[in-house]
Amino acid sequence: MRKTKIVATVGPASESEENLIKLLECGVNVFRLNSSHETLDVHRDRIQRIKKLRNKGYTFAILLDLSGPKIRTGKFETDYVTLQQGSIVEVVCGEEFVGNAQRFWINYEKLYEEIKIGEKILINDGAVSLVTKEVHRQDKTILCEVERGGEITHKRGVNLPGVDISTPSLTERDKEFLKLGNEEGIDYFALSFVRKAKDIIEVKELTNIPIVAKIETVQALNNLEEIIAATDAVMVARGDLGVEIPIAEVPIAQKRIIELSNLYKKPVITATQMLESMINNATPTRAEVTDISNAILDGTDAIMLSAETSIGKYPCEAVRVMDDVSKMTEKYMESYETYKLEWLREYSSSFDTSSAISYAATTLAKNVNAKLMIAATSTGSTAIHVSKYKPAIPIMAATNSSETYNRLSLVWDVIPVMLEGDLTTDEMIEQVVQKAQCLGLVNSGDKVVIVAGIPWGKPGTTDTVKIQTIK
Q1: Is 156 an active-site residue?
Q2: CATH fold for the domain made of 352-469
Q3: Predicted model pTM
Q4: Is 51 annotated in the active site?
């Protein structure tokens, strides 16, 4: 059974009920909806269609990605303009107009106040690079030299690496989608272009749904630890991150983000271009499968598909590749489980009681050759803590909360189990063991390790580790 979770983006290629079921059968655990594309009504329809699949017995989470403050160029007099290296161009932040190769508009009005001489304006995912030479405040104009030329079409994205911009991470459009997600009861919101912990805190005032902080700016890397401490989960958003920082630094940034997320016991998703070639091809490149494997070895909880499943020709094939690579990598991981435990053990004492108990339970399970771990959890926290110690055996998370049950679909190695009624701890264990036996995870005579609070089902009461032999 695969431990790494797979996130698939829903779009025209996958939005029908038939195709959604195919993705689930191939191994998808989380459906992502990207609010950058389509209207509120389209996304509402998609969410409702996806949620109905739970009535067919499927378990998954729904993640709604908020697009954030995307800075873009305006329109041009022709279909495209060509900026020549070494030429001087005017970037105007005032009233919108139709531009040309010498002078064009961008949609961030305060940029002329916040950019400094020498800082860069990157256009079209960094394909075109401008260097700020002069700022004319009276005209709201920035005079730039073209460092790297190229073609620009209408409304291309703009990145401002290192520029300390003041625009909020949550736009008015995002607030509409936030309301939609609250109404429909999705499982996660992803917040784009997070720069500091305050961005997370402000969104949490508007929703009780967990937040996934997308790390994709220089400012986010500079404030990484405070952001991870404030958020519920993390996404390594390598697309914009690879524009904001030198592309050669992205692999090291990925490792740092994943490491800190694990230390703070936050689920982490690795995203962007994981199987980009499979948008149009039925098989991946060797580099892509190596990228997937390395993200898992880095410690990611989940790996994500974007255009591969939203508009690609081979969405199910892409999921199957992730499934195969994940299983092979996880088999290898068992050989260095002890190293991983020792690496994380150093940090357990500096965190909460749940971390120490989870570490103790994981080492105990290894020492007694247990076949299963059971984590009793109302909020999901206990299961997440156990997961972060990367046990070689499955973790079944027993919960009486439907929200927690769905959300745990994002967490590495966790199999959520929904329990109804007012059960004692012994009754809870008995029902989970029966489920595990039905799945073929344990047999008579096997040992299981239980992490729970007494009584179970109450937040913040995890205080017990127990070994039980299945009769």
Answers
A1: no
A2: Pyruvate Kinase; Chain: A, domain 1 (3.40.1380)
A3: 0.92
A4: no
